[in-house]
User: What shape does this take?
Amino acid sequence: MLTRRHIRIKVMQSVYSFSFKKNHNLEDEVNFFKDSVAQTFDLYLLLLGLFRSISHYVDEQIDLYHQHNMLADERYSKFKKLAHNPALRFFHNHPTLEKNIQRKKFIRWDLEFKFLKELLDSLFESDFFLEYLRINEPTEQNHIQCLVVLFKQKIAPSPYVYGHVEDKGLTWTDDLPLVNTFLLKMLKNIKTNDLQSLQFPMPIENREDMDFGVHLLEQVIAKEDELQKELNGKTPNWDEERIAHLDNIILKTAIAELLFFPNIPVKVTLNEYLEIAKDYSTPNSNHFVNGVLDKLVREFQEEKRLNKTGRGLL
Assistant: This one.
């Protein structure tokens, strides 16, 4: 599920966290990094659990309409349409999803009554759903597309979902775009008659990626003074106090990768950290980081300190 860029971001989060702690402990920070990686899967479960809760909520609303004999109500027909959506029912009592959710006590969308109501109100008013409602015999693809639109247009951009995620997980807001992309791809490929089509991936399936992240984190923290010396004098127009703390961490992490990871090409390292600076630091950070790293790379090349071998891994 995780890319190498995401691993780099999590390393930087750990370095940033470590820099503010009074009792420095590298082992604890490595564990924080590993937990952060593992919790990416928890975020995926949290979002999957929302579909399960929507399905349960729909059933509860239909029961209420029956109890109050309000079957002629226009909203009843909309709830009924969703209740018979096999793609939504797919999540209702999915055994593996159910088992995972039971283990994670923080997944409690069923208590978010107001949010679930507003979410479905918004869906019911959409042009897409009104079109879907008019299809007498929807295909499986029509049913799946209903969930895809619900996720893309209502759930993924929801400020409420973002706030919920922000409250639950320390690093989840950075994970959210990646998990959203993965979940959307999964939604488009589920088969409603095949429970195995719902994927439950490990956050990192390639052990080399985890090893890369741990090793990079250890190098940046253990050799912090050495890496800082590489930066001294390379920012003549910037006082140390004026350099954003995160920019400093981005630069030291990039330098560690340039000097201590022979299998990663220079171009890959430069591109990755410029993009990270653009996304995570100040508006001018990518230009600043680009200028400093270009200068350092030329210096390292002149001093023959870039011992790059083999083909790099992204």
Residues 71 and 77 are 8 Å apart (CA to CA). The mean pLDDT is 90.
